[in-house]
Amino acid sequence: MNGIQNSAMVPSNSRVKTLNPFIDSEGILRVGGRLRNSDINYNQKFPILLPSKHKLTYLIVEYFHKNFLHSGPQSLLYQIRQNIWILNGRNICRKVVHNCVICCKANPTCTDQIMADLPKDSVIKKTIHSMCQVWTSVAPFTLSIKGREKVYINKIYVCIFICFVSKAVHLDIVTDLTSNAFIATLKRFIFRRGKCAKLYSDNATNFVGANIELKKMFNLVCKPDEALASYMVSEGIDWKFLPPRAPNFGGLWEAGVKSF
């Protein structure tokens, strides 16, 4: 400011040189510009220039922050620059908002939830498809079958088997959402990929019904022959159902849906 008063020139090493400052008739330092012929407010054409490290500047920013209902840093800076230009104003606005007690209470810092450990079946070393999750699409796909006289429209579903170990995805077509259809799909999966030790699924009625039917078949076969019963027990599949209304337990197959 002394340089402008003495020589009307801003020193080359000054931070405000690019703002082309000048002193008005009232002795106030303002930002220069090319809007002298504009019909807007004089303070908007030539905002008052204030330093960043001054108590008055901080009090002015606090006043604007409270007057505009505790607005954020960006909105606060916009409102101030309508009449005042503060050097390094963005950081000053952030500091005022950060130190405001009311804003801190209105926007508390959320703590990060610690995630639980991965399931044991997902981290132990097993052969591929030894631990699987199964999911059947709820929305059907339309299949057109051309007959001799007309075209028949049938609905089909897709059953997804996902390996816990390798995350490999096996897709198979299901004719309907009945237990018999799923049992047939499970047999095709076992014949192609091998038997899995554990099978996880949700509580859909077709899965629960299929599990009941398989248990009935297992009990029927086991009754006449104890040797066969022991073999079936040693080679049987442990079927586990996820808790009801807990889709987060089936995140693996939800990600596998992206494969098709």
UniProtKB/TrEMBL annotation:
<dbReference type="Pfam" id="PF17921">
    <property type="entry name" value="Integrase_H2C2"/>
</dbReference>
<feature type="domain" description="Integrase catalytic">
    <location>
        <begin position="104"/>
        <end position="260"/>
    </location>
</feature>
<dbReference type="GO" id="GO:0003676">
    <property type="term" value="F:nucleic acid binding"/>
</dbReference>
<dbReference type="GO" id="GO:0015074">
    <property type="term" value="P:DNA integration"/>
</dbReference>
<protein>
    <submittedName>
        <fullName>Integrase catalytic domain-containing protein</fullName>
    </submittedName>
</protein>
<dbReference type="InterPro" id="IPR012337">
    <property type="entry name" value="RNaseH-like_sf"/>
</dbReference>
<dbReference type="InterPro" id="IPR041588">
    <property type="entry name" value="Integrase_H2C2"/>
</dbReference>
<dbReference type="InterPro" id="IPR036397">
    <property type="entry name" value="RNaseH_sf"/>
</dbReference>
<dbReference type="InterPro" id="IPR001584">
    <property type="entry name" value="Integrase_cat-core"/>
</dbReference>
